[in-house]
Input
Amino acid sequence: MNKPLPSMVPTWSSRPVRVEVGVDAAVTRDGGNGMHGAGRRRRVSSVAVFAWGAGLVCGVVCAASVAANDATVQWQGGRQQKAELAGIAAERLFLRIDGQESAVAAAEVHAWGRLREPPRGPAFLLRGGSLIVVEDWNVSQDRIRGDAFWATELSLERRLLRAAILSWSTAPMTHDRELRTWLGPATPLSPPSSSAPSSDPSSASSSSSSSSSARDQLVLESGDTVSGSVVGWEEAANEEPRRLRVKLARGETRIAADAIRAIIWSSRPSTASEEPAKKPASATGWILGLRDGSLLRCERIEDQETGTAVNGAATAASSLRLKLRDGIDLTCNSAVLRDELVFVQPLAPRVRFLSDMETNGYRHVPLFSLPWGFERDANAAGGALRCGGTRYLKGLGMHATSRLAFSLAEPFRRFQARLGIDDAAANRAGGQLAAGKRGSVIFRVYLDRGAGKWESAFASGVVRGGEAPLPLDLDITGAQGLALIVDAADHGDQGDLANWLDARVE
Output
């Protein structure tokens, strides 16, 4: 039986107490693979050895050399520290802090580096949540081939892709919403548990579009949508624009490439035997962010030639196999990958992100009549989680004045997060508002320690837009329930897009 939740007391007018990684250098690379790559310029940094040992992750990769004053490590307790990433082996990270290199347990590190924004050009969205930026691509009836400069070869089965994006909106909020729509339900990073959402997001997505699941969906620049079966690119002379062949119910048609925004691939394999096996959320592994905006959810890294773990002391492996959560193996050149790595996040089995857990009640009290819901892994307006120019993968978006509760079925010890007003609060007003009017809230945490009574465990004071996120590390030992409350502060609830960034329990 759900227990009573803490009441909210709106405080409308109360007043209680870019990590740039690497050294830039211009390198021009011509597009290849027989596709229409126009070449690109990428940034390359100096190199430091970066070893992946046996265990959670295997293989050898060289990490980008990063000046100690340019990159930071975020510890599980929320503290940040300038650090250079020297390597990773099994369950450890090697960090160089103040010139001294030391090995630390991966479980002690929340993340290193900083995510890059998704690209504005072509990209593949995989069903397991990875995003791969490509310079150009081609498609046949059963495979998609792309040109990603860090990958030796990129040839994927169509059934493993969620979408191919040709162009993105220049409006950040529209860009974010399109990405969420095209990718589908948020991808859990936490392992399965009794507190995970009971519904299968992929099943919900499939049932909601069962009538069109066997057809590809083309989202056009005009806003229209075309349903059919993509055949492939039409052969065209170099000077002519490419056109995509699409089989419709009434026959085949051709659509110019520059008229297409994205292709959402059919969710139904062509035969039952091709149905990919469902895999639980991985309890271990790493999330790798690349300089071009690619995001790889990686379970394992192997030596391409031997297919086995590489000795951490060896550095000769030049070709690596990345085994992604998507069921896809990618081959890449370690010399290129080492220069592109800008973000590393270990996945610890004991950590549960609140955005992956079932809720125990939500309530919003509007100032006037506009209701606001909460969002998983997005701000309350539906955009990506951003604070201080940094993008976050996980977290909860709420609006003043609201309350969100969770039952804690496991004996968690700590609740950790970073608290801040989303950058979109300023963008929604054209960026012209003074800092105090870009949102201002009070974050509160209540705990039910088993006595059937909710007790206040934390109050932030006023957090305003434009301020750096506030770290929170709270002892929740013995708690059976956790409630998050966002109260309004200055200027009513104007711009009160409150983010609980990387909110997690362990």
In short: The radius of gyration is 23 Å. The chain has four helices and 41 strands. The mean pLDDT is 75. The chain has three domains: 26-115+279-347, 123-274, 352-505.
